[in-house]
Description:
Layout: H1 2-13, H2 21-46, H3 51-81, H4 95-125, H5 135-148
Helix pairs in contact: 1-2, 2-3, 3-4
Amino acid sequence: xxxxxxxxxxxxxxxxxxxxxxxxxxxxxxxxxxxxxxxxxxxxxxxxxxxxxxxxxxxxxxxxxxxxxxxxxxxxxxxxxxxxxxxxxxxxxxxxxxxxxxxxxxxxxxxxxxxxxxxxxxxxxxxxxxxxxxxxxxxxxxxxxxxxx
Length: 149
């Protein structure tokens, strides 16, 4: 659904060629904007002061993907200068491909550790929940407490 609307806007309305960077980024930001919009309605029903937290979180995800693309293209250029041929997005069983995948997993984990608590803990700040902890910590504490009782 989101991709179809993104294609409509990027390719039909803005007349950007399919597969171009501009088309890809328009579709990316539209998808994350609409995801934030859907969460916005839930936030609004829960507590009106929370309405922008979802937008902030989901648009930050699109910004992170844009940053990732910049880092990947820069890394590809630097690797090529060093005589290492690497094509991102393709299955690559070389040591460079393995390193890139591992760095990618660490990056995604780090990014969610940085952004998810900001989204979840905002509900704590307005009094929706009783503590102001990160999501993972809160889950572990709640699980531990239930098993101890």
